[in-house]
Write a structure and sequence with these properties.
By secondary structure, this protein is of the alpha+beta class. It has 4 helices and 13 strands.
Length: about 220
């Protein structure tokens, strides 16, 4: 695994502003039962890591003066006006450290799903699922195969096969991850047709009313003569 060199801020008295000006981002590494360590990383390195798509669920090796620390990214802070990254928090981990991570869910066989073939729509309720696991056992993603899914089916957390020792942080209910719902186009089309028919009928009724009113007016005109 590639390690990323960090500046030890405990040995460097530069201000946060000065570090940011030099393209460095200040941060801290903390962990249960350990002394927090102030460090700084290059902004371009952080951006590269953030663009991987799995930043918050990947254990990273950080090299601090030759000593490599295993960390898990926990929080990023941005400037309220410029949106520039100005600080980060990393969690120091060991192999048996329990961590909470958000893992993406991937649906397989979308093109072969019976429900989707019939015009159904996959309504994703959760794109990420929060899990509790050991730091050395973080899954890259969760998967669910839609090969037998029909319209009306719901994908729940109990339907997802989790690696051994990995559990959802929500344990009091079997929560829904996605549903396969009926198509909405037909309903919308019918609604539009009904509206158009109603408008046409209304126009017809108004036309008849105008004819009747015209006829009545003619009769009144004759009587007055």
């Amino acid at each position: 695994m590639e390690s990323y060199k960090a500046l030890d801020r405990n040995k460097d008295s530069e201000s946060n502003h000065s570090l940011l000006t030099k393209g460095m981002v200040p941060g801290i590494i903390y962990g249960k039962g350990s002394v927090p360590t102030k460090i700084a990383l290059e902004d371009k390195i952080l951006k590269k890591l953030m663009n991987t798509g799995s930043f918050y669920s990947t254990i990273l090796d950080i090299d601090i003066d030759g000593k490599v620390e295993k960390i898990l990214p926990k929080q990023l802070q941005y400037h309220p006006v410029s949106d520039r990254l100005i600080h980060f928090d990393f969690l120091r981990v060991q192999e048996n450290t329990k961590v909470n991570v958000e893992i993406p869910i991937e649906f397989l066989n979308l093109e072969k799903c019976p429900g989707l073939k019939k015009g159904g729509v996959l309504n994703t309720v959760r794109r990420l699922v929060e899990l509790t696991c050991n730091a050395n056992n973080i899954p890259n993603k969760l998967e669910f195969d839609l090969i037998e899914s029909e319209i009306g089916d719901a994908v729940k957390i109990s339907n997802i096969k989790l690696p051994e020792g990995v559990v959802p942080t929500i344990v009091d209910r079997d929560f829904v991850i996605a549903t396969l719902v009926p198509p909405t186009v037909e309903i919308e089309t019918k609604t539009e047709e009904t509206t158009e028919e109603g408008a046409a009928e209304g126009a017809g009724e108004k036309s008849e009313e105008k004819k009747e009113e015209s006829s009545d007016n003619k009769e009144e005109s004759k009587e007055s003569k």
